[in-house]
Amino acid sequence: MFDFWRRSSGIVFLIFITFVLWAISDAVIALTFFSVSLLLMMTLYIHHLVALDRWLRSNDLTVSSIPDAAGAWGEVFAALARFVRQHSQSQKRLSLVLERMQRATSAMPDGVVMLDEDEHIEWCNSMAEKHLGISLELDTGRQITNLVRQMQFAEHLAAKDFSRPLILKHSRHHELVLSLQLVPYGFQQKLLISRDITRFEKVETMRRDFIANISHELRTPLTVIGGFLETLSEEEQTDTAMNKQALSLMSGQAKRMQRLVEDLLTLSRLENALNLMKEKKVDVGKMLHDLAHEAESLSAGHHQIKLDLATDVQLTGSEDELRSAFTNLVTNAIRYTPDGGEIILRWAVQNGQGLFSVQDSGIGIEPEHIPRLTERFYRVDSSRSRETGGTGLGLAIVKHVLNRHQARLEVISNVDKGSRFNVWFPAKRLLLQSSVVEQMM
Ligand code: ADP
Prior knowledge:
This protein is of the alpha+beta class. A hairpin with a 7-residue loop joins strand 3 (166-169) and strand 4. The chain folds into 4 domains: 2-97, no CATH class; 108-196, Beta-Lactamase (2-Layer Sandwich); 208-271; 280-440, Heat Shock Protein 90, CATH 3.30.565. It has 14 helices and 13 strands. Residues 434-441 have low confidence and may be disordered. The strands form 3 sheets. A 5-stranded antiparallel sheet has the order 2-1-5-4-3, sandwiched between helices. Strands 7-9-10-12-11 form a 5-stranded mixed sheet. It binds adenosine-5'-diphosphate. Adenosine-5'-diphosphate binds at residues 328, 332-333, 336, 360, 362-363, 365, 373, 378-381, 385, 390-396, 419.
């Protein structure tokens, strides 16, 4: 209220003088004085308004360029100066923080690229420039897929599954291996983080090569030893019963070592991320018929093997790898199910996902072991595993094959009641025929 009277003091004073003039002279002089004064005041107001408008439109919105005035307009301009000062201070503070952030991200050993919703480059640090061969100055606003041109990268972006990094060889410097991780943030924007894993990959390759080479080297001598041992144990003139027993034991162990070597070779092939899958259409129904026959001959009539094919949907994937994973699950079901038990192989589509499952009525698994089953050489009962010809690598192979197919393993088990190993395949791997689509609707 006080503010109102203070700001209106000029006009109040003018009215007062007008009344005094009216009183001491006449109305014409008083009203002329009032009109002239009012006109002068209006002119002054318009002058200040024009000055303010000119300042607002100018490019120099600094405190020093704010117009000068006395009275009420002076107060308005002073408040404006305060606001501009505060604004420029907070702007300075923000650009300092931004500069510090940019300096920190530039010092990072990883490359960082900020992408907008259409995968155009918004910003990148110097390490990303080095890793991906891009330039912040020249490539800002360009689509990342036009600059990182490997097919795998475009497919990875299109798949929109950023749970795992993509391992990529540099297009020009082939010795450089990168791990590219996409992290969604904000409004459909993404951070692309590149990491040089050349050294790690070298060590991994050495480890893989070592296992692959040693397994390969062991395979031939083992085959020869195994072959001779088998022949010798079948020989009629093998002297004593003890010799015969020793020979059969030796041949059993040689076979076990052969299986171990084969599994190690399979694992090292699957582990190699740069070893691309040979994908094709896989007729799961036909594969399960074959597996059921193989299971029957392995069980030798000791188990009841059932097949439940709820769909004829096909899968895209590597037939050899899938056969190897499914065989491991079926073999395990036979090995860990006592005679007289039942084993069911299923193939169905549930909630839009492909579901392959092997259910047995066997010994079951205690819950604490379930999370560790896919580790190499992890066994719940080592002696049973060995007695039944296990290598301890079967489920590790299954895990790798499923990872390569973006599939998921689920283990449901009850001790002494049985187990169910479910393999869930994502919808994008299913090849739906029109009749099946209608059934699912
Ligand atoms: P192994 O060659 O020892 O069977 P795997 O990797 O195939 O190796 O399996 C790991 C462990 O998981 C096995 O040792 C066994 O204890 C357990 N297992 C796997 N399948 C079954 C099953 N169907 N029923 C009970 N236990 C199982």
